[in-house]
Amino acid sequence: MTEAGTSLASTPDGPSSNVVLEVQSVDAGYGAHTVLRDVSLDVREGEIISLLGHNGAGKSTLLRAIAGAIGVAKGDIRFRGESQIGHGSARVAQDGIALVPQGRGIFPTLTIGENLQLGAGVARRVTDRPTVTQDFVLDLFPALARRLHEEAGTLSGGQQQMVAIGTALMASPRFLLLDEPSTGLAPVLVQTMLDQIQAVHRELEIGVLIVEQNIHEALRVSDRAYVLRLGEIVREGPAATLLDDPDIWGLF
Ligand SMILES: Nc1ncnc2c1ncn2[C@@H]1O[C@H](COP(=O)(O)OP(=O)(O)OP(=O)(O)O)[C@@H](O)[C@H]1O
């Protein structure tokens, strides 16, 4: 149910040029509870895409489906042209898709360094991508360098988020799925976090699909966005267009 005037076909190169990730008419959910209905979305090379929507719209569920953490009842999810259906989360991670879940997903009793090395363990099983080093992560998040040997659970919310993203980067991903990376951050830090994500995207040339509640901030760093409502995509378009559209706020 995409609104007219925002379709992908309006791009000069057409809908399928340089598509890295493609979600095609997906239904997914939990057992008998269908959450996502006929969801389609794509991310092209060099893009940051925002996935927006109110609580319970199905944003996390879509990220989990892409990451292979839950099954898909209908449709297809293709990464670099290959269907991911049935691959499971370990294989999807090795193919280069890293999920940073909501709530950070770090190991609080391991040190920051040990958490980062868990990501490096995934990277050791892949040979076709340049390795993201610990130095890169510590340059990106200097606050972690100073506390490398401390337990991750002792860090502030924002620093734990850095550990989660850093661990995902250490897996040398091709694509990052970020579920509300600014959760729990002070407003002044939200902008910094999103700027750092944009820097990572540019420097490592990896695709990013980001779920965010901070709509303005998310659109500021994104190329395009999709809006999910009750499990369906109800709006999509260039970030700049959505930012200027007063009707967008009625969708939340
Ligand atoms: N593990 C689960 N088992 C069963 N139902 C779930 C599970 N996780 C989420 N749901 C349900 O799926 C629906 C979509 O939830 P989801 O977390 O994907 O939404 P969301 O858009 O990410 O919301 P939020 O912004 O609150 O995280 C909700 O009705 C939720 O109750």
From TrEMBL:
CDD domains: ABC_TM1139_LivF_branched. Gene3D superfamilies: P-loop containing nucleotide triphosphate hydrolases (3.40.50.300). Pfam families: ABC_tran. Keywords: Amino-acid transport, ATP-binding, Nucleotide-binding, Transport. GO terms for molecular function: ATP binding; ATP hydrolysis activity; branched-chain amino acid transmembrane transporter activity. SUPFAM superfamilies: P-loop containing nucleoside triphosphate hydrolases. GO terms for biological process: L-amino acid transport. Residues 21-252 form the ABC transporter domain. Belongs to the ABC transporter superfamily. This is Branched-chain amino acid transport system ATP-binding protein. The lineage of its organism: Bacteria, Bacillati, Actinomycetota, Actinomycetes, Propionibacteriales.
